[in-house]
From TrEMBL:
Name the UniProt record assigns to this protein: DNA-directed DNA polymerase
GO biological process terms, semicolon-separated: DNA-templated DNA replication
Keywords associated with the record: DNA-binding, DNA-directed DNA polymerase, Nucleotidyltransferase, Transferase
Top-tier EC class: transferase
Domain DNA-directed DNA polymerase family B multifunctional: 285-676
Reactions catalysed according to its record: DNA(n) + a 2'-deoxyribonucleoside 5'-triphosphate = DNA(n+1) + diphosphate
Length: 702
């Protein structure tokens, strides 16, 4: 089976791995396919008559397909077109021939390699272990447009551009890698442009000459967050993985990616840059194909009518118990195993089965009154193998001591985890191919009922819930009451719910942090000491935030250890003073003070002179492009200024920093540690001021 698909000069090259490299088979007869259904006054015969002589159409014929999971088979027009580009062009043309909705199109917007594998019924699983070559070019070198050094598998190649290219070319020839791991996709055009400038005609990164740009860079917004998608490039016969644009490789490993290649049918190169939703959709598309269901180009499903009571209940979301702010001793955490995916599977929550006509009037979903069809839905069939396989992997992980096997299983388990984590939210995503908002609402309703019932069971057996959110609860023993062992309670709840409640962790203590300007608890900010282990758990506080400098994160963890050892706010403040002394000495390595922030919009759209803006201005003057969705790394050198001199880029190699700015950051981190014990920033500042006054007085007396 091919592990890589290339489109060249109108042909398709299927690359298959061999023992000593790879070879390809050329397919010159492949024609991609789209489908059209007719509605309203549109006529299938008329459409066929128009399309059969169209220059972009190779062949058209009537076939029987299902236009959705809720539909039986009906006559639609299958249209084989001349090329990939013609698919989208023709689809737009057809959709404009009648009133909106009269012609509905299917199987239009598949990615290149995935489409070919899907239509040819190919599984792009590598048939042997893949060899990987890592290439990295520093951003400043790319900006200078003079390729004088690069890193190849951690070996630095340097010299004039022609010498660097010659060394790289020899390395590529000698190792013949299957995968090129790049620190940025811009390495590809930079290398070829350098080769052109040097008249290095024989240079090639692929297994054949030339390279292609598959997509330009773009900015997007998802759930209120701006993201950046880099340009994507292709070389023949080798998969390109861009480290700056690969979620699954960064969150798992090569084993995890290969596991998802098998499950999704997406070749490795496409899987590497794909989002979680894209992979989940690919799995759903394969299931749809098995059921003879077409994939809509644009979703047109409507939301069914609801009563005011249903609207109110449906809008509640997941359930949370307000955390009991403070430090609690001897706390236990219980988690439902893959709660939302298991609700989908065990309750048969599927877009085509929710609120079905055959069981109208039956109230299966608690609080909402929705019915769910008894016939098995497609979504449970997609998710159940993932749940089962991951549980098997987790069981083997607990039992094996084979280091290589552990790495493989952890990678595969982590990759599956992200699909399971996202499957619930994707049902409410407006652009999901097969999503349905009623599924999203039903899953939340089941989860709320499960968590409330679990709380009642725990309280009836001598346990108090100190916090609970979505699929987890933290409990501590009620003083003066007899406790049923938690092992028994988990078995009781598991039997009642039909989803396993697991004992996750025991904490010597756990602290729930209040909101910064309120006494109410922050839902996702807590930290604690894991019992019988030299380990701590941190969630939501500064040391877990990606923008926090390493120095602040390390200091906060150290203060938490001081709290663990002494259970005393003054002991933590004393530890804080030691970190402040290090900071105020002015001798820290500035790499420990780098702040990483995401750019939310173009530089000229900012109206305030923030630190981010200052960093973007410095980047622009140095020819370093920062698009919305990308990160900018900087050190604050003088926060009193409102110009670009306020900060310095991490790559500038500065040695100075704004002590007062980082002092404030350190105190805020200390507040997160001490606020569960009632101390806020003002209390900490006062303690430090008293210490300073006493110290100065003592010095004067001496």
């Amino acid at each position: 089976m091919p592990f890589k698909i290339d489109y060249r000069d109108g042909d398709v090259l299927e690359w298959t791995l061999t023992d000593d490299g790879a070879e390809y088979v050329r397919n010159s007869s492949y024609t991609p396919t789209l489908y059209v259904s007719v509605h309203g006054r549109a006529d299938l015969v008329d459409l066929y008559g128009t399309l059969r002589d169209h220059p972009d159409v190779v062949h058209a014929r009537t076939v029987e397909k299902r236009i959705g999971f809720r539909y039986d088979s009906e006559s639609v027009l299958r249209v084989d077109v001349t090329s990939l580009d013609a698919v989208t062009t023709l689809a737009h043309e057809i959709s404009g021939w009648a009133k909106p909705g009269d012609y509905r199109l299917y199987n239009v917007d598949f990615s290149r390699e995935f489409r070919y594998c899907l239509e040819r019924d190919l599984s792009p699983i590598p048939e042997r272990e893949l060899s990987v070559m890592e290439l990295a070019v520093d951003e400043s070198v790319l900006a200078a447009d003079c390729l004088t050094k690069l890193l190849v598998d951690e070996e630095r190649l340097s010299g004039d551009p022609e010498a660097v290219l010659a060394k790289l070319s020899q390395r590529v020839t000698d190792t013949d890698p299957d995968v090129l791991m790049l620190n940025t996709s811009e390495v590809v055009p930079a290398l070829y442009q350098a080769a052109e400038s040097c008249d290095f005609d024989e240079f090639q990164l692929g297994r054949l000459p030339e390279w292609q740009q598959l997509a330009g860079e773009s900015t997007y917004a998802s759930y209120g967050r701006v993201g950046h998608s880099p340009a994507r490039f292709n070389v023949p016969g080798r998969a390109i993985v861009d480290r700056s644009n690969t979620f699954f490789w960064s969150q798992s490993n090569l084993d995890g990616c290969i596991d998802l290649v098998e499950r999704s049918g997406k070749p490795l190169q496409e899987l590497a840059w794909a989002s979680i939703g894209t992979i989940l959709t690919a799995m759903q598309i394969r299931e749809a194909r098995r059921r003879n269901v077409l994939v809509p180009w644009h979703s047109w499903r409507h939301e069914q009518l609801k009563t005011m009571r249903q609207l109110h209940e449906a809008d509640r979301g997941g359930f949370t118990f307000a955390p009991d702010v403070g430090l609690h001793e001897d706390v236990h955490e219980l988690d439902f195993s893959s709660l939302y995916p298991n609700i989908i599977v065990s309750r048969n929550v599927s877009p085509e089965k929710i609120r079905c006509e055959c069981h109208a009037g039956r109230e299966d979903v608690p609080g909402l009154g929705y019915c769910i069809c008894d016939e098995r839905g497609y979504l449970p069939d997609v998710l159940e193998p993932l749940i089962t396989d991951r549980e098997t992997m987790k069981t083997e992980l607990r039992e094996t001591d084979d280091a290589e096997r552990i790495v493989e299983l952890e990678g595969r388990s982590s990759a599956i985890k992200w699909i399971l984590v996202s499957c619930f939210g994707y049902q409410g995503f407006s652009n999901a191919k097969f999503g349905r908002i009623e599924c999203h609402e039903a899953i939340n309703a089941f989860a709320r009922e499960i968590l409330l019932d679990t709380k009642e069971t725990l309280e009836a057996n001598g346990w108090r819930v100190v916090h609970g959110i979505v699929d987890s609860v933290w409990v501590t023993a009620v003083e003066g009451e007899e406790q049923t062992p938690l092992a028994e309670i988990t078995e009781i709840v598991t039997a009642d719910v039909g989803i396993r409640l697991e004992y996750e962790a025991h904490y010597d203590w756990i602290a729930f942090v209040p909101l910064r300007n309120s006494e109410a608890g922050a839902l996702t900010k807590y930290f604690g000491k894991v019992a019988a282990e030299d380990d701590y758990k941190y969630r939501g506080i500064e040391c877990r935030q990606r923008s926090t400098p390493q120095f602040i994160a390390t200091a906060q963890k150290d203060m938490i250890e001081a709290l663990d050892e002494h259970r005393d706010v003054k002991a933590v403040c004393e530890q804080l003073k030691r970190w402040l002394q290090r900071l105020q000495a002015g001798t820290l390595d500035v790499s420990e003070l780098v702040i990483t922030n995401r750019v939310s919009k173009p530089l000229d759209e900012y109206t305030r002179t923030t630190r981010n803006v200052a960093a973007l201005e410095r980047a622009e003057t140095r020819g370093l492009c920062r698009n919305p969705g990308q990160n900018v790394d900087y050190v604050v050198v003088d926060d009193s200024k409102q110009t670009a001199d306020r900060v310095a880029l991490a790559t500038e190699g500065v040695e100075e920093y704004d002590i007062e700015f980082y002092r404030k950051q350190l105190i805020r981190a200390a507040e997160s540690v001490l606020s569960p014990l009632g101390w806020r920033e003002a209390d900490i500042t006062q303690y430090l001021a008293d210490y300073k006054d006493i110290s100065l007085q003592t010095f004067g007396e001496g």
